[in-house]
């Protein structure tokens, strides 16, 4: 469900999740809304300017994070041609509108694309009480690469997120957008943005690693983000499109 729609419904006091069990957005592996948000039906004072500000904030705040994720995904696709070929088969065979564009529903139903994006539902465990005022930092990067949770964590393996194996992912060991009430409200927008960009690139180009690319990547930390120390050097080789 779109965040702007949620805000508009909250503005009118008509936020209702009771009939959303068949929501197509459930196809997104990383989407898991908090029960607190699902039960939120109280009308609150939301101005049109607030909604406009949130929408603008999505484009500004999500620019660096989304492009960063897409850079790593394209790098892994270039380094793993078998994965890239499998993804191309799914994208190229997906239904399209008459103008050749991928539809919203089609994009969400691309299972392997979701697995690829999820790689770069869980049972709930006992809660942990944290005293008010305690500062907490969650080492998500390290958790996602902990062999205790993910065998061969440095291997790019989208199959970790197929329907059979993703059920075995331990609670709270996978949280690219955080979880529960503090989860990112731009999760759906970011995932759809990334998936659409990757799908369109894969449809038209073969992604290859440039001679300038340092491999494996030498990652450096800048603030809370991680970037390749020598940059991301990839090439796009046009595919022959059948007439």
TrEMBL record:
InterPro entries found in the cross-reference section: Cyt_P450, Cyt_P450_E_grp-I, Cyt_P450_sf, Insect_CytP450_Detox
Cofactor: heme
Topology relative to the membrane: Peripheral membrane protein
GO MF entry, a single one: iron ion binding
Positions of heme binding: 184
Family as reported in the entry's similarity comment: Belongs to the cytochrome P450 family.
Protein name as it appears in the record: Cytochrome P450
Species whose genome carries this gene: Ignelater luminosus (Cucubano)
């Amino acid at each position: 469900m779109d965040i702007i729609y949620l805000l508009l419904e909250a503005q009118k006091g008509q936020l209702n999740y009771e009939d959303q069990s068949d929501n197509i957005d459930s196809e997104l592996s990383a989407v898991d809304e908090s029960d607190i948000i699902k039960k939120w039906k109280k009308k609150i004072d939301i101005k049109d300017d607030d909604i406009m500000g949130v929408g603008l904030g999505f484009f500004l705040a999500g620019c660096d994070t989304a492009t960063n994720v897409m850079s790593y995904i394209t790098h892994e696709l270039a380094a793993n041609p078998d994965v890239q070929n499998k993804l191309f088969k799914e994208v190229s065979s997906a239904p399209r509108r008459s103008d050749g564009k991928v539809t919203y529903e089609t994009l969400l139903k691309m299972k392997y694309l979701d697995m690829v994006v999820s790689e770069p539902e869980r049972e709930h465990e006992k809660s942990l009480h944290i005293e008010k005022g305690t500062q907490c930092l969650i080492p998500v990067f390290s958790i996602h690469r902990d062999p205790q949770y993910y065998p061969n964590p440095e291997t790019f393996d989208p199959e970790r997120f197929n329907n059979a194996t993703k059920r075995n992912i331990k609670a709270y060991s996978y949280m690219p957008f955080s979880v529960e009430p503090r989860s990112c409200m731009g999760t759906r927008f970011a995932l759809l943005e990334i998936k659409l960009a990757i799908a369109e690139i894969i449809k038209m180009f073969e992604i290859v690693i440039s001679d300038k690319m340092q491999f494996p990547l030498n990652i450096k930390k800048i603030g809370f983000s991680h970037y390749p120390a020598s940059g991301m050097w990839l090439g796009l080789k046009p595919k022959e499109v059948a007439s």
